[in-house]
Sequence to fold (224 residues):
Amino acid sequence: ILNVEQSPQSLHVQEGDSTNFTCSFPSSNFYALHWYRWETAKSPEALFVMTLNGDEKKKGRISATLNTKEGYSYLYIKGSQPEDSATYLCAPLEAGNNRKLIWGLGTSLAVNP
Amino acid sequence: NAGVTQTPKFRVLKTGQSMTLLCAQDMNHEYMYWYRQDPGMGLRLIHYSVGEGTTAKGEVPDGYNVSRLKKQNFLLGLESAAPSQTSVYFCASSRGFMEAFFGQGTRLTVV
Fold:
């Protein structure tokens, strides 16, 4: 089973700041990596699914990179806005027949106006 | 397109009572999952299914049973509820390794 670590655990930034989070996972037995955004009182929503070493994905002001050889992924938010306040979860997917996501505890982001 | 729908949204049970949570998806996804989410802990997988008629145990299966008789439905049963099962339950579905779509959650309190 993959062990997932996310850092920092929480983050407070000012509106307009750029920020980034880290997701670390063992590089063996890797199949894919998911990033989700989870707003309070809502359900997690997918941001990115990444599979290849060196992958970079972008959605608006949010982007992510993946390094499968060293076992980490970065999520970047450029020019944070109050509506970006949420918990950001990463979840690597195990290789094998019964693939299931292994969830990190998330990074809680608060953007102050 | 409704996506993933969970019923009920809220429920209060007495210790020892039973109940079934229903998850329905209209996206023709093969994979379906039941998670529980507790304060200070990440999403923990209870049971999952990789196709109609198949189920498998996740990290915390004790005290729960599941069934996937139809591809679009995944039922989570509590035979004899305990206060430790007070939690928020999320159902999700996905196509293979692609992004998971979540239901809106069920808040269950066992008193």
Notes: The interface with chain A takes residues 33, 41-45, 48, 50, 56, 58, 90, 92, 96-105 of chain B (CB under 8 Å). DSSP finds no helices and eleven strands in chain B. Chain B has a mean pLDDT of 95.
